[in-house]
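Would you mind writing out the residues of a protein together with its fold in C-alpha cell form for me to study?
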Amino acid sequence: MKNYTITVNGNVYDVTVEEKGAGAAPAAPAPAAAPKAAPKAAPAPKAAGTGSIQVKAGAAGKVFKIEANVGQSVQAGDPVVIIEAMKMEIPVVAPEAGTVASIDVAVGDAVEAGAVLATLN
C-alpha cells in the first residue's frame, strides 16, 4: 500500500493505493475515509492605498494586457485588464466609475476566476 496526497480543484485528498502484481502481498481493503479539505489560507491583507471597489476576473486565464494605470479615472464598463483564455482576449471592466487605486497583477500572471485584479476608489 502507498499513501498519496492529491489536490483536485483546490481540495486536498489523502488516498491509499493498493499495489497488485508480481510479488505484491494481498492486502485487506482500507476503509473508505471522507476526503478532507485543506485549510484555506487567509486572504492577503490589502496594501495601503487599495480601493474598496474590487475588479475581479470573470474567467481563469493569463493576464494579457493592463489597460489602466494607478490614479487613472475610469467609467463603469471601461477595460482595466485584458485576460487571455482559450485563445480569446477577454476584457475585465470597471464595475462602476472610480479612480484606479491598485493594480494587483502583472502581465503574464495566471489568474483564477474571481481573483481580484485591481481595486478602485
Q: What stands out?
A: Strands lie at 2-8, 11-17, 53-56, 61-66, 73-74, 79-85, 88-93, 98-103, 110-111, 116-120.
